[in-house]
Write a structure and sequence with these properties.
Helices cover 53% and strands 22% of the residues. It has 196 residues and is α+β, with helices and mostly antiparallel strands. β4 and β5 form a beta hairpin. The longest helix is centred in the first third of the chain and has 29 residues. The chain is elongated.
Length: 196
């Protein structure tokens, strides 16, 4: 059997200048059509088709994830998200590597704050609070990894729920240690030349 669903906006609907709404209705119609197809496949016993489709999509998603991980490693950029209400932070594999932390280590705000260089801790805390108030953040700070100082440039933004409460914060951290050390060396050299 073939089932077809046709969705057409009425002329009165279009006359009201709500063309975008007709597109939304068409999109909903397409989604309903896809859901009906899946339902019919399940009802008619074509679970092999569904399983094959699920396996194909899972393989595609895995490839995309591997490409993302490779890109993050090459660019030395890790990503993170924080489920604010749950006080739970998730890191990408590269974020764990940048911070010198085992992947099995649970991460939360106190854990992250403990990694921050003592001279940067108060600014880090203030920036975090500003982020939770809705400010997009772009800031640089130091962390201590195995006794060594690393410089990170963090960018982050937060999404709010309908009540205006912070829902999820999403960010990236780029290891800029090499660039920062070159900048410091250049400044030291300039200061030396001024004294000569």
């Amino acid at each position: 059997r073939t089932w077809t669903i046709h969705v057409y906006p009425t002329t009165n609907f279009l006359r009201q200048g709500q063309y975008w709404m007709s597109l939304a209705v068409a999109a909903v119609g397409l989604m309903l059509s896809a859901l009906l197809q899946i339902l019919l496949l399940v009802v008619t016993g074509n679970t092999a088709v569904i399983q094959r489709t699920v396996n194909e999509r899972t393989a595609e998603l895995r490839l995309i994830q591997l490409e993302l991980e490779r890109a993050q490693a090459v660019s030395r950029v890790g990503s993170w998200n924080c489920h604010v209400a749950e006080k739970r932070i998730e890191w990408s594999a590269e974020m764990y590597r940048l911070c010198g932390v085992e992947h099995s280590q649970p991460v939360d705000y106190p854990f992250v704050l403990a990694m921050v260089h003592p001279e940067d801790a108060s600014t880090f805390a203030e920036t975090w609070q500003a982020l939770l108030q809705g400010e997009c953040c772009d800031y640089t700070h130091r962390i201590i990894v195995d006794g060594q100082t690393r410089w990170l440039r963090q960018r982050a933004e937060v999404t709010f729920d309908t009540d205006g409460q912070p829902l999820i914060a999403v960010g990236t951290a780029q290891d800029i240690t090499v660039e920062k050390m070159a900048e410091i060396a250049l400044e030291n050299h300039r200061q030396f030349l001024r004294t000569v």
